[in-house]
Amino acid sequence: MSKTVHLIKLSVGTEDVAGLEAWQSQKRAQTEDGLPRHITRMWPKREDEILNGGSIFWVIKGVVLCRQPVLRLDEYDSADGIRRCAIVCEPGLIRVEATPRRAFQGWRYLPVDDAPCDLSQARQHEDILPIELTQALAEIGVR
């Protein structure tokens, strides 16, 4: 039986969770069947582990704030002829405990034991704090 591993990725240019949701609602950020996707240059070598219940965790302005379960990895051929990977996710974002994360390039594997916990169902719909306050609270360990 295959283990599970997650991915973690910076959401570059995104100001908050609502901004990521808005981006994913655009046609250019979706597959032909309307699912959100993120296109990346590198194909994950641990594909089976990702597809065994893995999610992509999104870092927004230095803080992990949400995740999306990964449904599949599609091949994406760009105009430049380079094979790319489209990480296709379930629609909707699941908020997680705010966790600081330093900047990095591309995506990284995230072991299940290191992944931030989901916020409770009651907290999923709370008003989102300003990102600067979320960052400050996460830095001192308040989630």
TrEMBL record:
Pfam families, from UniProt? DUF1489
What InterPro entries does this protein map onto? UCP032025
Task: Please indicate which superkingdom the organism of origin belongs to.
Answer: Bacteria
Q: What is this protein called?
A: Lysophospholipase
